Amino acid sequence: LLPRQRNKPVIKGIQTPKKEVIRLDSIRMLDPSRSKLDTHETQRIISVLDEMIVKLELSSLIPCIIDSLDSFADMLGPEITNDLIEHQKLSSEREHLLSSFQEEDSSRAEEQRDCLCLLEQHLKSSVRNILRLLLANPSLCQALKYEVCGRWSSAEAFIKAFREFRNFMHERLLTSPLEEKEKIQFMEDISLRIKKNTETLTALKAELAATIQSRDEKDNVIKDLKNSLQDVANNYKISVLQIRQEGENQQKEELRASQARCARLQEDIQQLRAQLCTLVLEHRESELALRKVTWKESLSIGSLKLVELLSGLPAVCSAQLPVVVLPGFGMVKRILNYGCTGKSSQKCCSWYLLSC
Asked: Which phi and psi angles does 71 have, rounded to 5°?
């Protein structure tokens, strides 16, 4: 939004989200209320820190420049080159003195310590002189920053930390005491909130871990039940197949046994039929003879009984031919025959056996 539009009233019915309001308040609380330094002292402090950063950057380049002094001699000029050579000599003497101080006896330790302090003062003066000559030529400083390959890692870390200190001091100088107090209170509230959130998060993590463990245990129980059910189903299938196989085998055995019994019975039947036929053929003639004798005897006995029965019946003359049913003899038909003897006629009655 433009600065003019920031002070416009909010349209009724449109509410700003609470999260955005909290975020804006946090940003306002953390950001300083002023964007520029309003006093000469604060400006002087920041300028000193900026100059210190520039000097640190240039001083960290001096060892790299000395290592490649021949390539930078034309760019630096004779005065700076001579100072760098002198600085290199002082550094060599210091290193030699430090090495000899470690190797020799402690009798000359005090004298060597004084010489070392003197050399360090000369080195500091040399560095200040080199920095003064370099800062007098800003274009040379910029060219050296681009031409030099790099600086030591320790120097780079120190410069980075000093920049962070400069930014921190700049922010502190822009913040009023009341704002600083509010900021401290705000940071304490944030820390307390973070602590509570951390405790809540820890409790939730513990609850989540317990829930996951319970779920895993239930999953394991369900898995075991599934495996047991699968084993039961497999065992059931195997037992069913075994029972079916045994039933089929038993059925086949019984079928084979029944077929064998049927075959034996069929053979026995055929043998009995053959014997029967043989016996029938053997006794057929005697049977016919017996039947004839039996028939003749029954016929003679029947005739005698028929005569006895007919003698007791009255004689009836009629034009019809009556049929009489006698028990045990079948139907008997009486036939009237007329015969003439002279003038008189005499009725004759004869009985004929129709069927038995």
From this structure: -75, -25
What are the φ and ψ backbone dihedral angles of 21, each rounded to 5 degrees? -65, -45
Torsion of CA 204, 205, 207, 209, to 10 degrees: 160
Q: How many residues does the chain have?
A: 356
* Helical segments of the chain, H only: 3-6, 18-30, 40-67, 69-76, 78-103, 109-135, 138-147, 153-174, 177-311
Q: State how far Cα 260 lies from the chain centre.
A: 61
- DSSP letters spanning 65-105: HHHTHHHHHHHH-HHHHHHHHHHHHHHHHHHHHHHHHHHS-
The residues with which 15 forms a beta bridge, in sequence order, are: none
Hey, which residues does 323 pair with through a beta bridge? 333
Question: Which 3 state secondary structure label does DSSP give 204?
Answer: helix
Question: Going residue by residue through the chain (356 aa), what tens digit of pLDDT does each one get?
Answer: 333 444 444 444 444 444 444 454 555 555 555 555 557 888 888 889 888 888 888 888 888 888 777 777 778 888 888 888 888 888 888 888 777 765 555 666 777 787 888 888 888 888 888 888 888 888 888 888 777 766 677 778 888 898 899 888 888 888 777 888 888 898 899 999 999 999 999 999 999 999 999 999 999 999 999 999 999 999 999 999 999 999 999 999 999 999 999 999 999 999 999 998 888 887 887 878 888 888 888 888 877 777 777 666 554 444 444 444 444 444 444 443 333 334 343 444 444 444 44
Place of tokens 């006995």: 301
